[in-house]
Amino acid sequence: MVVETRSRLHDLVREDAAHRSLYLDPDVFSMEMRRIFETTWVYVGHESEIPNPGDFKTDRIGTRPIIVSRHTDGQIYVLLNSCSHRGSTVCELPSGNTKSFRCPYHSWTYKTNGDLALLPSRDRFGADFDLADYGLTRVARVASYRGFMFASLAEDGPDLDEHLGRAKHYIDIFVDRSPMGCVQVTKPLKYEYQGNWKLQMENMSDGYHAQYVHASAFGTSVEPPPDGRSGPEREHLERSFAAGHGIMGWWTPEIISNKQANPEYFSALVARIGEERAEKLAHMNLHLMVYPNLILHTNYCHIRVVRPMTVDHTEINTYPCKLEGAGDKLNEKLINATAVHVSPAGRVQVDDLEVFGRVTAGMRANPLDWVRFKMRGSDEHVNEYGEIESRCTSELVPRGYYREWLKLMSREPREPEIR
Fold first, then answer.
1. Is residue 390 part of a domain?
2. 22 lies in some domain
3. 3-class secondary structure per residue, the chain
4. 140 and 72, same structural domain?
5. Inside any domain, residue 38
6. 252, pLDDT greater than 90
7. Fewer Cβ in 10 A, N or C end of the chain?
8. Residue 123's domain spans which residues?
9. Is the overall model pTM greater than 0.70, yes or no?
10. Would 28 be classed as within a structural domain?
């Protein structure tokens, strides 16, 4: 199936369902890369990953390879990882520190801000050849919030502040659990699955599956499963808000909330934000989904970045985070908990990966065309912040994803503006 018209796109998404072609059709995937990932703000890294001049990391915006680099002027540049001569990627390392990027094909060499510095046999390129005309392409817009870096290939559109909207409130929750008000991102754990990128986003906002898919994992855990029940030990919460963002969360004992085990941490946190807020943040287990590719998990204090590769192949980079000022002992607990949760030998994420593969296989064989998101909370309402909210398990957050999907996909196609 080839999707060509705006009216056809509207036929693929309903208020409570998505057509299975959204998960299986390579043409739909190609359109998503152009109309979603190349037009909206996409998370590209955290400032703590590249603290010093010359530090860099490589990643992708959709399917376009990029370099995120801190130059000698202290500024961060996001560059398309493609030589201006013949198009080869100029850097294959995931991260490091360098004075320059050199293309392996003909040795064109670029500064860490993307400017072309030198090339062999320059005199044979003609008198009108100007180095300034052949730098690495800079992504049109780059901006940060609380250390979280985003980039957009589109020259115009909402600024980052408008795009994030209420998501900033929940990023603040993630960061403010640090006694110093900042987090440090460590090296990533990586996993992949044979399935569409949207499956991971949907799964992190799905409170319905955990007690079934992860029954064995939660059966060995002191934590109760996130089953959406309300009660004195658990208050479930789901919210969907503008730009496709959403949260799923609950208040329950977790790693950092044990005052007896973490007295220094609590003392430092209370000193900065007060006892009432410290108590609240310490017990808050929250999944924040920043559409289209960022997930924050407060309980294990990690960041997940969704990397679409093909229509049915997705990579995930999970970055354990340290809470600055929390102390080595607590930060080690958080990093170990993330490893137990999402590493190849972990006890939770492996269940989801198995299900993603089964969903993909089942969709290919399924004579029914629609993937359903019909579960609703009995108390769904719009709260004082303009968020659609439920206090029990529903599928309201994925419905929000597809409202944004349709909005972005329905825009007229255009080439991304770069400079």
1. yes
2. no
3. CCCCCHHHHHCCEECCEEECHHHHCHHHHHHHHHHHHCCCCEEEEEHHHCCCCCEEEEEEECCEEEEEEECCCCCEEEEECCCCCCCCCCCCCCEEECCCEECCCCCCEECCCCCEEECCCHHHHCCCCCHHHCCCCECCEEEEECCEEEEECCCCCCCHHHHHCCHHHHHHHHHHCCCCCCEEECCCEEEEECCCHHHHHHHHCCCCCHHHHCHHHHHCCCCCCCCCCCECCECEEEEECHHHCEEEEEECCCHHHCCCCCHHHHHHHHHHHCHHHHHHHHCEEEEEEECCCEEEECCCCEEEEEEEEECCEEEEEEEEEEECCCCHHHHHHHHHHHHHHHCCCCCCHHHHHHHHHHHHHHHHHCCCCEEECCCCCCCCEECCCCCEEECCCCCHHHHHHHHHHHHHHCCCCCCCCCC
4. yes
5. no
6. no
7. C
8. 43-145
9. yes
10. no
